[in-house]
Amino acid sequence: MVNRGFWVTVVMALALILGMAACSVDEPPGAESGEMNSENSDGESEGDTDGSSAGDGPFTIGISLPAADHGWMGALIANAEEEAKKHDNVEYILHTANDPNKQTSDIEDLMTKGVDAIVMLPIETAALTPVADTVAEQGIPLVVVDREVNTESYRTYVGGDNYGIGFGNGKYLVEGLTEKNGEPRGRVVEITGVPSSVTDLRSQGFRDYLENYPDIEIVASQPGDFTREAALKATENILQANPEIDAIYSQDDDMTIGIVQAIRDAQRQDEMFIVSSGE
């Protein structure tokens, strides 16, 4: 799998290029330079930059990401800020949010501030599709990262092969069940992420691989929302309702931490194994 930390460099570069193509050098929009500030996870960070030049400017890039309640998301935010600092004529406005309504409001705020391009990682695919269309209608280049939106209004999408990830996880799970039970059979649980293209594609790939193994049954599937806390609760509920489980498929390694805790709390470590997607 491509290292997602690499995506930030690609996304920032794309946003810079798209922003330069969309604005006039004679009348560049954007906020005045200022000291870098930061607020909490539902707040906003603004900063001017220093380092290598990305061309004429100044340019302002709006960045909208989910809050850093996940290890990879925290790294993504940090890397986005670091990449922006490499360009002395680029300013950025970073918004993070905990729910789709807040993220939609954040993106509307970026449009109001006249940014030259927007980089967005949607919290949820369907919920963020309308505002993506609005960005396009305003003529602002949009770069979508990781989770897609249900529209082609964005200029560029940067993401991994999530169907392939799920398909590969299905393969590993079948191999594990064959080793455990002597043949590809067993009772399987799936812990999914938030409603998004990432979740849908990983689940579809996983299930497509299992279609060839009729003796493998998915007995439960619940969302873990890509957080260890939600995954812990989902797994606890599933363990209580299912006295026999052979394996659990986790769509995310942060959720896997919560899954492991639930299994240990139930003292069922010897009964099942976990196959996990991760970075």
From TrEMBL:
CDD domains: PBP1_sensor_kinase-like. It comes from the Bacteria. GO terms for molecular function: carbohydrate binding. Residues 1-24 form the signal peptide. Pfam families: Peripla_BP_4 (PF13407). GO terms for cellular component: cell envelope. Keywords: Signal. It is found in: Cell envelope. Residues 61-275 form the Periplasmic binding protein domain. Residues 28-60 are annotated as: Disordered. Belongs to the bacterial solute-binding protein 2 family. This is Periplasmic binding protein domain-containing protein. It comes from Novibacillus thermophilus.
